[in-house]
Design a protein that fits this description.
The protein is α+β, with helices and mostly antiparallel strands. The protein contains eight helices and nine strands. The chain has a four-stranded mixed β-sheet. β2 (53-57) and β3 form a beta hairpin. α5 (87-93) runs antiparallel to α6 and α6 (146-158) packs across α7. The model has no long low-confidence stretch (mean pLDDT 94).
Length: 201
């Protein structure tokens, strides 16, 4: 398909119809059956110059005319996949901690890293594969369940990667049977021993 066949209006209407907010060049290739790499590159360049899309990072784009807002949690999932929202961001979302974290915190399987997009910082913390579980979709973003968000934070304190003092802020949330049962079922022996300093398992 020639680049001229994909007009700005056609691009906008197509992505709006499919409720697309974030996309890659591969998504554009499939949507418009573009087989030529130069054609694809030229189209993406035109869309950027036309103020229709924004380049977030390498081959990660934001559709500026999207029908629904580009929520931070959705963007966090998109920037690094697979990932899910957890730790401070999830604890704040569930009302377990009062403070609103300045960064958006996620869990990944790969190397831990930070990504800054304009004035927002997205932090990604690595966890063992067997603990990359128990996340659900909320507002089009993957997020840890409440029990898993607590588990994740305790895990990262145990690893020395999060401050221990915040545990005092959510101590009441650790007392419920559902949370304790989750910790007992999922933590290994050494992690249970660590958690046992703060809550009776």
């Amino acid at each position: 398909m020639a680049t001229t066949a994909v007009t700005k209006i056609k691009f906008i209407n197509t992505l709006k119809a499919k409720n697309i907010v974030f996309f890659t060049s591969g998504d554009v290739k499939k949507l418009f059956s573009i087989n030529n790499a130069d054609t694809l590159k030229h189209l993406v360049s035109r869309l950027k110059k036309g103020g229709i899309i924004d380049n977030l990072r390498r081959d990660k784009y934001l559709f500026l005319y999207a029908a629904k807002p580009a929520l931070d949690f959705m963007m966090a999932n998109f920037l690094l996949f697979p990932s899910y929202i957890s730790l401070e961001s999830a604890l704040s979302y569930y009302g377990i901690i009062d403070q609103f974290p300045y960064h958006i915190s996620s869990i990944i399987l790969g190397k831990s890293r930070n990504i800054k997009i304009k004035n927002k910082v997205f932090t990604y913390s690595r966890i063992k594969k067997e603990y990359f579980t128990d996340f659900i979709k909320i507002d089009d973003a993957l997020m840890a369940t409440k029990e898993k968000a607590l588990f994740d934070y305790l895990y990262f304190v145990y690893k020395g990667l999060r401050p221990v003092n915040i545990i005092n802020d959510f101590m009441p949330s650790l007392q419920g049977k559902k949370v304790r049962d989750y910790l007992i079922e999922n933590a290994d022996t050494s992690l249970k021993k660590f958690i046992g300093r703060y809550v009776k398992l």
